[in-house]
Structures are given as structure tokens and as C-alpha cells.
Amino acid sequence: MGSRGSATSPGRCLRSGNPLGTGGGIARLGRVNTTTLDQLVPILQLAVGPVILISGVGLLLLTLTNRFGRMVDRSRVLVRELAAAPDGAWAQNLRDQVAILSRRAAILRLSITLGAITVLLVGVLILVLFLGALLQLKVALLVILLFSVAVISLIGSMLTFIRDMNLALAAARLDLQLSPAPKR
Q1: Which domain holds residue 153?
Q2: Model pTM greater than 0.85?
């Protein structure tokens, strides 16, 4: 304590002013992250595309979950009608519609899952872009792989969505078969 060079605040070296002594500890962290704002701007620009993709897929997921909810509500109504319906053509039509709704539920679940996987992969892609820039890692192959799998997942979601729409039309045709003919 009596020595002039030893009177320091805890954790700080008087001569260098560096935390935890000269050349060590936190002072080294400055050398790890040398990313400047000029270097960060292109990374942010690259991340804008995936962020827009997340927004678009979010709207797709909203549409899919709404369709799923309406389909579940419709299937509950049909099951109640089926329980009260006498055997015959009407009951068979209701059974056919319930079967179509069951297939649609599985297809919509797959479509929603693929859409959610797309969002997760794009989120990881953005994180990899930033960590790669911050830590100066070569992540180009990983970025390409993540983006490719995300797009494939999105394509799968859209294909299953199209399949669901086709099944919805098949159910509508069944409704039309038993509806009374319009009077002239």
C-alpha cells in the first residue's frame, strides 16, 4: 500500500490503465471484434431479405392456421349432424366429408409445420450471418445450406397448401351433390 505503483483501484493496473493488467483479460476482447459500422452495414443489408421472408411466411402461417381452425369447426358440426342423421345417402355424404376433413387436417398440419421450420431456419440464418461477421468466421457454405433448406421447406408448405385447397373443393362438390336442384 505504501508503494506508489501499487495504489490502484481493484482490477485495474495503474501504469497501463487496462482492466486486469497489461495486455490481458478484457483488453484482448477489443481485438476479437474489429467489425466497424462500415463492415456491419452490408451484413444488415444481407439480413433484410431473410427478415422479409420471415414476414411473408408469417402471413402464410396466419392463413394456414385460420384455415385449420375453420376446418376443425366444420368437422365438429358435421360429426354432430352425422350422429343425428338417419342412414342413407345423406349420412354417407357426411361420412365422406368428415373423411376429407381428416385428410385436410393432416395436410394443413404438415403445411404449418413446414412454414414454421422455414421461419426457424431463416432466424438461424440471420444469427449465423451476424456471428460470422462478428467473429470473422467463414460461414458462406452454412448460409447457403440454411437458405436452401428454408426455401425447400417453404416450397413444401406451399405444395401442401395447394393440396389442401384441392381437397376443400372436393368437399364442396360433395355438398353440391346433395343440395336440392334450384327451382325454375
Answers
A1: 34-178
A2: no
